[in-house]
Design a protein that fits this description.
twelve-stranded mixed β-sheet, single chain, about 850 residues, mainly beta, 45 strands, elongated
């Protein structure tokens, strides 16, 4: 996911660089909340400025931090079962305030709870008994229990720069950006200063039918801050939506920031959580049990907070307020607050009415960071009234033609909540900011550093990490490339590069064009595009890379011998069409000429025992690819997409037809392959990415047209490659493979004190490849086929898999410095092959929460 995060930082990092800080004084308060007699800390206590909604909560150890620029005079601490306490504060100063709360005798007599550190028991615990009844009644309380329902949904997604320092504003470089401070605000979560930089709103109608199950959302209006000149707006919104997915408390597992948390009312919740019955409260006339819950192990992916459960026979969740423990192995999230409110829905239970999640992101607590907030509200409910069939069929999301063109009066009428002054001004402020020359210059520099391209009007030059590389065949390689931008055309994209090798003294080049036939601009999902390209360049047989160029400078460093290459000349025509249900197909015609390079030779026996050298082979292919990726999410780049993993599978089926005597094609064959990949979720035990692949070549062909299995001789860990297999080491005309990567997420390390502080996480993988070459494609049985490559001494270096599969495994640590993954990789068989590494350390940059 590193590519998507680079794009994200391109916006958020640069916006950080233009901030100047608050001009007003700040009141900063740090302290703790504890029992006045036992001195035990009181976790999850409420602290807020008296007469305001600006507040925070104490952590597991009773500590808190809160700040504001407003002139509040008193700070109040509240904890269920204790008397509230108010203390005077001094405006504009940093101060320590500690609350010693006195027990309130009105607390329920059957509960004696002071903190999570006291002895806990599930037996005869009224809170656990209530939670078990909530679990038993979950099915009937879920909204999916209705035969039909519909409602209007309003969503607001906001990102802001938080905790802006005063010293930062005095830098001269920022003097042209003073106007952005007209939108300063304060966080409702912790009172820190906020400057909104991104806002997205949408309003839609949702229709649900139970049988056959169908949910359809019709988008009536959408509005967001536009950064289209610098980044794909739709993908930015998609990525933010991925971070803030819908939270369903009734689901056992809750996805959040790419991780999986166990719900406090999951079937296994009493095993992983501590529950305490705190009080009886009224919420809009409903009498509710208030139950506090905490993780048994602070570092597990669990929540902590309060559940409010109705005291009637339904035992439904009326409200939930929760966060995560600060010791959890979660990157970049400094504070988190989640609140959901449910209302009585007809006679069948309760339904979600308001949903709010707030998070403060950053590296250090006292430094600037990013504040994100997602608010969703629902109204105009209608239950068990069926609609016409067309309201349930078709795509799950439909956007009306005028959805992005609605004016202010539309939003004033349909917006569920009034925007604050700072929120209302963010659209104009960010639009004005992008017109400031010095900001555009800074964005230009940042684009070079982070995205690798230098924008020059209607074209951009790059990527810069390919300008220089080296390899045994070309020696020192220089390359210069460029592509057009939307300023040139929103329907056409042209790209090209030229390269030269100072050892082989050959020029290489590429010309390509993409033409959109869809109503929207190029690359916008769902695409309908025609692509044409001509390329003459080098290639390593068996190296397949995603999202990065093969001549990336960092990939120049390789282990072992690496001098068997190809000079490829490719002419390719391709048509691609995607559908909104994430089914897609492509049709392709490709003419490919392959010429051996370096120490690679094409040769076969022509007469007697004499070898005949072949300068090149030429193929003409027609290909069709069918792909189905239900509920796929991705971050869209200009030329490729970075997937955002979820639990849904991806299927790909590909067929290639080799045409003989057509446009120079020398071979007739059929090539059929498939790929199935899926993320498997293991609650509290991490997740695994599994891939099953297979393929078969029908027909008699030389080894360059067989499956040359993906190898890796670099020192980076490549997830989809065999990291201790040499290039060109194995070829097959039929194979099946299985790749399994399991990320434990710190499940073991979190129980070791030192490793818990480092927040390292465990990973292991197993990769198996089974296949072979049939007699008709094996040069040992047919001397007219190309001999498999050997060393200069005639020692074989390319093999067919025998009766046993190729196997390699690895164990590793990721999240080192929150970025690095290190694996110890071990090759388990075929160890007698020349030049192989039996084991090795491989590294990878892995950015995640």
């Amino acid at each position: 996911m590193i590519i998507s995060f680079r794009r994200l930082f391109l916006i958020l990092g640069i916006l950080c660089a233009i901030l100047i800080g608050l001009q007003a004084q700040r009141t900063v308060i740090k302290g703790s909340v504890f029992d006045s007699k036992t001195k035990e800390p009181l976790p999850f206590a409420s602290i807020l400025f008296l007469g305001s909604t600006t507040g925070t909560t104490s952590d597991y150890d009773g500590r808190y931090t809160i700040e504001t620029s407003k002139k509040y005079q008193q700070l109040e601490a509240r904890y269920v079962g204790y008397k509230p306490k108010v203390i005077e504060v001094q405006y504009g100063k940093t101060q320590d305030i500690h609350f010693a709360l006195e027990s309130n005798n009105s607390i329920l007599k059957e509960v004696v709870v002071k903190s999570g550190k006291q002895k806990y028991s599930k037996k005869n615990n009224p809170a656990v008994e209530i939670i078990e009844k909530v679990i038993a009644n979950k099915q009937k309380n879920r909204k999916a229990n209705f035969d039909y329902y519909q409602y209007e949904k309003y969503q607001k997604l906001e990102f802001a720069l938080s905790n802006i320092s005063e010293g930062f504003r005095n830098k001269k470089i920022f003097k042209n950006f003073q106007f952005v401070f007209d939108n300063l605000d304060s966080s409702k979560m912790n009172g820190k200063p906020l400057l909104p930089v991104y806002l997205k709103e949408n309003v839609s109608d949702v229709y649900y039918r139970k049988d056959p199950r169908s949910t359809k959302e019709i988008m009536k209006g959408e509005r967001f801050v536009n950064f289209s000149e610098f980044i794909n707006d739709e993908s930015l919104a998609e990525y933010f939506q991925y971070l803030y997915q819908d939270i369903d408390i009734y689901e056992s597992n809750v996805p959040l920031f790419g991780n999986l948390f166990l719900s406090p009312i999951a079937n296994m919740a009493p095993t992983f959580y501590r529950f305490y019955l705190m009080d009886t409260v009224y919420i809009d006339g409903d009498s509710c049990f208030q139950i506090s819950f905490y993780p048994r192990t602070r570092t597990d992916y669990l929540f902590q907070g309060d559940l409010f459960i109705t005291k009637n026979e339904s035992y439904a969740v009326r409200e939930v307020r929760m966060t995560v423990n600060k010791e959890i192995n979660l990157n970049w999230v400094k504070e988190l607050a989640i609140r959901q409110r449910f209302i009585k829905a007809d006679t069948l239970g309760y339904i979600l009415d308001k949903d709010e999640i707030m998070a403060d992101f950053g590296v250090f607590n006292a430094k600037m960071g990013i504040f994100g907030q997602r608010n969703v509200s629902y109204k105009n409910f209608v239950f068990n009234q069926p609609r016409s069939e067309e309201d349930y069929g078709g795509p799950a999301l439909v956007e009306l033609d005028q959805a992005n063109n609605e004016n202010d009066s539309f939003w004033n009428e349909l917006r569920h909540d009034t925007l604050t002054k700072s929120e209302a001004g963010v659209y104009m402020a960010m639009d004005s900011l992008q017109k400031v020359p010095s900001f555009r210059t800074f964005m230009d520099i940042a684009t070079i550093l982070l995205a690798g391209y230098k924008v020059a009007g209607p074209v951009e030059i790059g990527p810069v990490n390919t300008f220089y590389s080296f390899n045994p065949v070309e020696g020192f390689r220089m390359r210069l490339g460029a592509r057009t931008t939307p300023a040139f055309s929103t329907k056409m994209l042209f790209e090209s590069y030229g390269a030269y090798g100072f050892k082989d003294h050959k020029f290489k080049y590429f010309l390509g064009g993409t033409f959109s036939l869809a109503p929207d601009r190029i690359s916008v999902f769902p695409v309908r595009e025609f692509r044409v390209k001509y390329q003459k360049d080098t290639k390593i047989p068996g190296q397949e890379l995603q999202f990065i160029q093969e001549d990336n400078f960092l990939l120049s460093f390789k282990r072992g011998e690496n001098d068997k290459w190809l000079y490829n000349e490719t002419f390719d025509l391709q048509y691609i069409q995607e559908f909104k249900n994430h089914t897609s197909f492509s049709i392709e015609a490709k003419r490919l000429t392959q010429q051996p390079a370096g120490s690679l030779f094409f040769s076969h026996v022509k007469y007697g025992d004499a070898l005949n050298a072949v300068e090149q082979i030429q193929t003409m292919e027609l290909a069709a690819t069918l792909r189905w990726a239900p509920h796929e999410q991705f971050f869209q780049g200009k030329l490729y997409r970075t997937p955002l993993p979820n639990k849904h599978p991806i299927f790909t089926l590909r067929y290639n037809l080799g045409l003989k005597d057509v446009l120079g094609g020398e071979y007739a064959y059929h090539n059929l392959s498939f790929n199935f990949s899926k993320r498997i979720l293991f609650p509290q035990f991490g997740f695994a990415d599994a891939t099953l692949e297979g393929g078969k070549v029908f027909g008699k062909v030389p080894f360059p047209l067989l499956f040359i299995h993906r190898a890796n001789q670099t020192y980076s860990y490549q997830v989809q490659s065999y990291n201790l297999m040499n290039f060109l080491e194995f070829v097959s005309d039929q194979f099946i493979s299985f790749n399994y990567n399991h990320y434990l997420g710190g499940f073991l390390f979190n129980r070791v004190p030192l490793l818990k502080k480092l927040k390292w996480r465990e990973v292991f993988s197993v990769k198996l490849l089974y296949g072979g070459i049939r007699d008709e494609n094996n040069p040992d049985f047919d001397p007219t086929l190309f001999k498999l490559p050997t060393t200069v001494d005639g020692i074989p270096i390319t093999y067919s898999l025998e009766e046993k599969p190729y196997v390699e495994a690895s164990i590793g640590i990721y999240n080192i410095f929150k970025l690095v993954r290190l694996d110890y990789v071990r090759r388990l068989n075929y160890l007698d092959h020349p030049g192989v590494s039996k084991s090795g350390i491989r590294a990878r940059i892995r950015f995640e929460f």
